[in-house]
């Protein structure tokens, strides 16, 4: 039996509860779903990591190819400069010219070969990305099917008037439902993370002020948190759904930093030449500097929070990178955090 499930059973269910055949059948069903979820989840993590590593290696190789081609072009420029002779008056000049022609031919062949390799590499990367996206959709479906079954069964047990459950047992079932919601959110996060590159860069004209107001209504801010919105937020072009994800994930992250205490969250922007520099700041508990890089990694979370999937900020970073921007943060423990990110301006 799954170790986590075993601990939860020992912690929350009494011996009398465990004597029930219905409870035992129910626990076995959950255990089988746990096993299926863990296996599929590990496969999804591995696929995502493999794809990221391949993309990184390909990027390094393409950068090296670009540098080599730059050197070749500089060499050719030099050759062209040398060849600017009106005539070859002696044998040495002729031989030198012949050697230079051979050199140019050799360099040209190397450029063609390098371009062919790059085209094949990009073609393979596109194929692998497509396979990864398809895999993510399949895994998402396979993982959600048992979750839906467990959710339905749990709600059926809770709502059954003759279930004879104690208040503690009902509370424990509710806790399981919350964990199911977290699993569902994590699966959706993986799917969103793997399909970001399918977005269109500058598809929609987006009023970011209206976008933040929509997010505020969706998140239902508690009374202890004040949201301050810069009324001069600009109109940008992009994929509205993806930019909605960026702002919502950052605002949700800020909201979770107060731990029930009163505070402020501010969303603003500054004009930085050819870019918009947005920021989301809070007066919450802050983040230690040693975690400033780690929090952007996929499946990384600083706290064991049931509502935190550990994928929100990695999605934000991937979307910002997709637009050619950058993201960073300034933070001081016990005083607050500010996340900054840039989006290029478009005509």
UniProtKB/TrEMBL annotation:
InterPro entries from the UniProt entry: BphY/WalK/GraS-like (IPR050351), HATPase_C_sf (IPR036890), HATPase_dom (IPR003594), His_kinase_dom (IPR005467), HisK_dim/P_dom (IPR003661), HisK_dim/P_sf (IPR036097), Sig_transdc_His_kin-like_C (IPR004358)
A Pfam family recorded for this sequence: HATPase_c
Ranges in a coiled coil: none
Catalytic activity: ATP + protein L-histidine = ADP + protein N-phospho-L-histidine
Top enzyme class: transferase
Cited SMART domains: HATPase_c (SM00387), HisKA (SM00388)
Location of the Histidine kinase domain: 138-347
SUPFAM superfamilies: ATPase domain of HSP90 chaperone/DNA topoisomerase II/histidine kinase (SSF55874), Homodimeric domain of signal transducing histidine kinase (SSF47384)
UniProt protein name: histidine kinase
């Amino acid at each position: 039996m799954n170790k986590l499930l075993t601990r939860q059973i020992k912690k929350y269910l009494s011996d009398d509860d465990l004597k029930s055949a219905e409870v035992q059948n129910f626990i076995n069903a959950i255990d089988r779903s746990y096993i299926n979820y863990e296996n599929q989840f590990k496969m999804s993590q591995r696929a995502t990591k493999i794809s990221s590593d391949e993309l990184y290696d390909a990027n390094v190789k393409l950068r090296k190819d670009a540098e080599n081609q730059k050197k070749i072009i500089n060499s050719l420029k030099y050759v062209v400069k040398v060849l600017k002779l009106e005539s070859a008056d002696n044998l040495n000049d002729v031989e030198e010219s012949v050697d230079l022609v051979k050199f140019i031919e050799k360099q040209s062949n190397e450029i063609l070969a390098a371009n062919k390799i790059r085209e094949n590499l990009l073609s393979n990367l596109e194929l692998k990305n497509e396979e990864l996206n398809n895999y993510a959709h399949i895994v998402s479906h396979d993982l959600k099917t048992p979750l839906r079954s467990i959710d339905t069964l749990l709600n059926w047990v809770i709502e059954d008037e003759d279930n004879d459950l104690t208040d503690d047992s009902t509370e424990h079932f509710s806790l399981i439902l919350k964990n199911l919601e977290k699993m569902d959110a994590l699966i959706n996060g993986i799917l969103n993370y793997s399909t970001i590159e399918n977005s269109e860069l500058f598809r929609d004209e987006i009023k970011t002020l209206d976008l933040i107001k929509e997010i505020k209504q969706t998140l239902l801010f508690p009374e202890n948190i004040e949201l301050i919105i810069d009324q001069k937020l600009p109109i940008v072009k992009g994929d509205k759904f993806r930019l909605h994800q960026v702002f919502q994930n950052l605002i949700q992250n800020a909201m979770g930093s107060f731990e029930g205490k009163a505070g402020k969250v501010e969303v603003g922007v500054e004009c930085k030449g050819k870019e918009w520099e947005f920021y989301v700041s809070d007066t919450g508990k802050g983040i230690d500097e040693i975690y400033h890089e780690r929090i952007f990694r996929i499946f990384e979370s600083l706290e064991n929070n049931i509502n935190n999937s550990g994928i929100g900020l990695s999605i934000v970073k991937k979307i910002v990178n997709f637009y050619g921007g950058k993201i960073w943060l300034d933070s001081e423990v016990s005083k607050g955090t500010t996340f900054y990110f840039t989006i290029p301006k478009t005509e």
